[in-house]
Design brief:
Elements (H helix, E strand, L loop, with lengths): L7 E4 L5 H8 L2 H4 L10 H13 L9 E8 L2 E11 L2 E8 L8 H17 L4 E5 L4 H9 L2 E7 L2 E6 L4
Parallel strand pairs: 4-5
Antiparallel strand pairs: 1-2, 2-3, 3-4, 5-7, 6-7
Length: about 160
């Protein structure tokens, strides 16, 4: 049986820009993100600016990003965003770490971390129906399909911490 990866989350810093840019420009990673294409430089800069701005977490649209690390190496990114319905979580895993349980560990950590950052909130995750690995990961962790909108499925965590 494979060993569960030992993943930690830490806040995103400006020094993580190159790692994020690598994810955002990799068509394997962006396949199920946004319009499914690698991001343009301006989109990357806009998202980085928002991530580093550190708006108050009570404010709508406030974001906090976290780097997922394994033995000091960045392996993924967790994105959290305050919205009217709660806090949306998203996760991107570097392709060389796919298939090892990294995404599941990242979601588990996000579920544990979000209340510390935002308070007790409803957790939401979006997934493309064709992204079966992601939809399976979410449902195994207690997220339930709530609705479909614009070609994406919205999952909510069935229980709160």
């Amino acid at each position: 049986m494979p060993t569960r990866p030992s993943i930690t989350l830490r806040p995103f810093h400006e020094a993580d820009t190159a790692f994020f840019t690598g994810l955002a420009t990799d068509e394997r990673v962006t396949r199920f993100v946004g319009d499914g294409r690698p991001w343009a430089p301006q989109a990357i800069q806009d998202r980085l600016r928002a991530a580093l701005q550190q708006q108050p977490v009570e404010q709508g649209g406030a974001v906090r990003w976290f780097i997922a690390e394994e033995e000091g190496e960045a392996v993924g990114l967790v994105v959290t965003t305050r919205c009217d319905a709660g806090v949306e979580i998203g996760y991107w895993v570097s392709p060389q770490h796919w298939g090892r349980g990294v995404a599941g560990a990242m979601v588990d950590l996000a579920v544990a971390t979000v209340p510390d950052v935002y308070g007790r909130v409803r957790l939401i995750a979006w997934a493309a129906p064709a992204n079966t690995a992601s939809t399976r990961l979410l449902t195994r962790r207690g997220f339930e399909l709530e609705a479909s909108q614009d070609g994406l499925d919205r999952y909510v965590l069935a229980h709160t911490q």
